[in-house]
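Late entry, pyridoxal-5'-phosphate complex.
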Amino acid sequence: MANGVIFNDDYPGIAQSDALYQRALGLIPNVTQTLAKGPSQYVNGVAPKYLAKGKGARVWDVDGNEYLDYNMAIGPLSLGYAYPKVDAAIKQQLEDGITFSLMHPLEVEVAELLREVLPNAESVRFSKSGADVTSAAIRLARAFTGKDKILCCGYHGWHDWYVSVTTRNRGVPQAVRDLTYTFNYNDLDSFRSSLDGNVAAVILEPVTFTEPKENFLHAVSEICHREGVVLIFDEMWTGFRLAVGGAQEYFGIKPDLATYSKAVANGMPISMLTGKHEIMQLNEDDCFFFTTFGGEALSLAAAKATITEIRDRNVPAYLDEQGKKLRSGYNAIAEKLGLNFTRCTGYTCRSLVSFDASAGDPLLLKSFVQQEMIKRGILWSGFHTVSFSHTDSDIDYTLRAYEEILPILKQAVEQNSVGDSLRGVPVQPVFRKTTDFNTKPVAGVER
Ligand SMILES: Cc1ncc(COP(=O)(O)O)c(C=O)c1O
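Prediction complete; structure with ligand written out below:
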């Protein structure tokens, strides 16, 4: 019998998942198209590898096991799987066609909707992936300023200009690598010291899991304005979650450009670039940013239905409420047990359970908790990515699972048996180096 979202007696059977995995090995490099969905992020041998179905906040793997999902497709499922209003909009559009030989009215309708809800959306363009729009933003910033260098601080996609600063930069020419630099979040000195007269743009996620300190975002915005540097907010995670108008609205800062995808269409592939008209209008002539599926209508129909629902039902307030219960509930359990090496931090709409090294290898500790969450029917990789479909009873059940798991984690730590308790290969870091390091564009200094 397949497992459910209950206190199961055993770990789930994953024979079908593993059979598919064997077929993919050697055929699909990395076996995954999305790093965070791949087996490196789950205890290999315990966790399912392939999902076949979703409804609300629940998913079913190919072996028929049911789980409560806290990854929500790495962000896109803001409302929940198979959300009726969005699916109806997609089905209705499907009757008329997917993509066309001329423009589609939804391009105008969704652009107008974005102008209503996003503070900086004087002008709007659509594309398909997050990396498309962050890269388009970078090109526009270079065109607008006539400068070349980019400063960033976080993850912004797979394209050359960004990946050059990570540890996986093979294949990116040195000339490109020499143009992107990084600064540390919440470290104004690091930011200032990375700026020089040839910086075209600063791109950052307004927040990840840490709050901006001492007006960091406002200070960055002010310096960019003063120095003629284009400020780009990468709102893949914050958009439509932190507030309807994303971090722009939440922090009261209007960046020159902003980029969105994930939450905006409840799972359909679409991304958005919004910004000041004077910068965006460079697309009219001088810059080139066009793609075959940019105006694809199913995703636009899904975006229209999703944004309307998020706005009309005040979804960010709901995410905040449910996320708060998870974050404070987890921390209360850990504190009561005296587990000082683990806490849940971050914003309520997307919080993070992390482990420090004082109790052992954090990746082993995370693997242990994941293994036990999976046994209890919860698909978990350290994040609480909350959706509009996570109910009160889902949150209660999750906290009850933590109440059962954290004491056995404590015992395993005390007995130094965390590694031995794992029934598979532990999880790996999500990406080796994408944040909190500082590379400065100082003339003559080797990188
Ligand atoms: C903050 C941020 N920016 C950009 C991207 C890239 O988006 P995509 O994977 O759709 O290209 C991601 C993806 O996870 C992201 O989290």
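The radius of gyration is 22 Å. Will revisit in the morning.
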